[in-house]
Amino acid sequence: MGVAVRVSGISKRFGNFSANSNISLSIEEGTIHALVGENGAGKSTLTKIIYGMVQPSAGEVFIKGKPVHFTSPRNAINAGIGMVHQHFMLVPNLSVAENVMLGNEQARLFQRLPRKSIKARIQKHAQDFGLTLDPDAIVENLSVGEEQRVEILKLLFRNADIMIFDEPTAVLTPSEIEQLFATLRSLRDKGKTIILITHKLDEVLTVADTISVMRKGEIIGTLPALSITKPELAKMMVGRSVLLRVTNPMATPGNTLLNINNLGFRSSKGEEKLHKLSFNIKAGEIYGIAGVEGNGQSELLQALYGLTQSGSVISGEATLKGDSLIGKNPDEITHMGVSLTPEDRLRHAVIVDYTVSENLIFGRHRERSFHRGIGFDNQILNRYAEAMISEYDIKCSAPASQLLSSLSGGNQQKIVLARELNRPNISLLILAQPTRGVDIGAIETIHNKIIEARMKGIAILLISSELEEIIALSTRIGCLYKGSLRHEFSQEEVDLKRNSEYEFKKEIGLYIT
Amino acid sequence: MTRKTSQIFIPILSILTALFVSSLIIIIVGRDPVMIFQKMFHATIGSAYGTGQVIFRMTTLILVGLAVALPFQVKLFNIGAEGQLQMGTFAAALTGAVLPASLPAIPAITLCILSAMGAGACWGLLAGILKVRFGVNEVIATIMLNFIAQGITGYLLTYHFAMPSTVHTQPIINAATIPAISSITGLFAKSPANLSALFSPCVALLFWVILFKSRFGYEMRATGLQPDAAKYGGINTGLHTLAAMSIGGAAAGFGAANIMLGYKHYYEAGMTGGIGFTGIAVALLAGAHPLWILLSAFFFGILEYGGLTVNAYIPKDIFMVIEAITILLVIAFSALGKRL
Prior knowledge:
The complex is a heterodimer of chains A (513) and B (340).
Chain A: E1 3-14, E2 17-28, E3 32-36, H1 43-50, E4 58-63, E5 66-68, H2 73-78, E6 81-84, H3 96-101, H4 115-129, H5 144-157, E7 162-166, H6 174-189, E8 193-198, H7 201-207, E9 210-215, E10 218-224, H8 230-238, E11 256-266, E12 272-282, E13 286-290, H9 297-304, E14 313-320, E15 323-324, H10 330-335, E16 338-341, H11 345-349, H12 356-360, E17 371-372, E18 375-376, H13 378-391, H14 409-421, E19 428-432, H15 440-455, E20 459-464, H16 467-473, E21 476-481, E22 484-489, H17 491-497, H18 501-512
Parallel strand pairs in A: 3-8, 3-9, 6-7, 7-8, 13-20, 13-21, 16-19, 19-20
Antiparallel strand pairs in A: 1-2, 1-4, 4-5, 9-10, 11-12, 11-14, 14-15, 17-18, 21-22
Chain B: H1 3-29, H2 33-43, H3 48-73, H4 81-98, H5 105-134, H6 138-161, H7 181-185, H8 196-213, H9 215-225, H10 227-232, H11 237-254, H12 256-264, H13 275-285, H14 292-309, H15 317-339
């Protein structure tokens, strides 16, 4: 087999920042080649250079041995390169077939569209690569996994031989991930070259043939996937040894603090999102909710934090130390000692155009200790910000003037956690996706802080779509499926099964799908 | 280019480009742009009377500019400064006319201004309520409320409050009038500039403190920047929408102090003359920042009055073209700046 893509001496600078420096890499034809690295390591920039979206400051790109100078993705597409972006580029109210032929209609302006032949091709590809899809389905009715299959079909229609996937599993359910991997393998077996960008180590080790690790704009190493273990890979990515699993000392839960009894939630559209949901959380324990997204997690959060939209109906009860949480607004709920990190950080937890300091008090700005006159006490604010920055290892030099948007996702999340974990008098901490989009180095810090909070006797509700995270942190685990708990693992079971993670994951997986 | 420098650079570039384009138009009309701008300069800030006229216009422009700018910080586009000013002026004129003539100046002026602010605030609040309670887009609501304000004031004036055979209300009591600067200091020769010119920069300063130095402003800007997050932060976003619209309306109503208490001393049909709409331009050029509005209002004050002074040579409509081009350029350059 030949070399599909070769880059040599590629550098790309944005202002003073070097996104790629002197990168040389060969990607073999007919392999799945993964590019791994933390956020900002330069993986995206490198693939954008290959795809013609970004022009390198220096260096050369060769496709199948020929030097190329792409000035736009159009050139790359003509050279047989395709890319599936993290955010799909589909027209929601057109059908699958129409989306697939869009921009490649194979008909003149006023000619009839060759719908039949296109449908036939879709069906053939579907058989060859496991891309089951109804060509007449309207895209807006498809699941995320199906939308991704449409994107892959688009590449096949354009006869792409080299396919770039940018974080393809971020939005998929576990079973969809399995299916995607099967598709990737069959594409490879038909001679296609797959470039996979990801930061999930398990997936890389499962599906990739070759792995290139990037850090700070450089390639640290390229090796066959079979020759490396997960801890070694993590170490290469971060540049130091990382604890992939936080030490979770035995929990000694106290009194029951949160009591949820027969909680129901009917959305404004009349869908039943939660149904007879019951569980409780004791002081000093972490209750993990495992589940595929969309099984009622968001609604549970909304119900517990007073953020229901008008028209939705909540039934049943949720009490904290005997006081009901239902029907109160977020301000009243925080006063009862509840703290929350929302699932969607950028939409709900922070104001990106505010400074780091301003974000560190966001939602806590009514606390009197920060006040001075009609505004805030800048001295106290600065001291508090400095303390949080050092305690949570936040990369930020000037909290009072630096905007939050200038920080990486991991550092933004640490700010949210620092703020919420340090609220005075919390008795219930709700953590939704606490490490989403966060680098593995930062995950370690965040997990340690969560365990620390548990040791202080706080009741913690952990909602995460990462089973590893649920297993690593939880004292008890509830498996959420279609709005109610299908199974609960007791503390003894969790402690016992934590040591055989792979089997435990599989077992949980049975209860949530 | 950093955010700070582009904030200053973009308006200046827009003004210069607009002046260049208008020079071309003047040349096409067959006049010498240098001569026109020179004449304009002499007739405005080049003379005592002209300076007074510019200050007079600037005073109202600052207030209507603020009326647009504050809601803008909450991502609300208040097109209704004109209607809010109209209602405020009418309310102040009625109040000023019915007050007992023996009332001393300070309470008389205060009462008139409060009624103006109150009427303006109500008019803004109405748009806010329509938005929060019924989801009516505030642009549509404020435009409609402008028509309604015009209709109501027109009807009340013609059928109930106009003095016989005139188109204006009874003059306000003497104590409620705000003295002209020229009558006290002799500055600005007989121009309509009056002491309320001192108030409006104070209002701008107050708005700046509220927006950027107070907890209220912290919540208000958060509501504008990220409403979903604001709700998570326990902020009552509906309340801030109502507050922004009514405080903005109050600022527009305050304009009555300048054009009515300080100048006309009664309400007459058409006395606001669309200055509320120029407020939109003032706010946009200033990037909705309360302090930059002072400069922006000064620029528009010169154009508004300067246009009149050179009307003998070129139609004053050209200056409306300059105003409009400036605003379009500010918006276009800002969009371009974000992409770079």
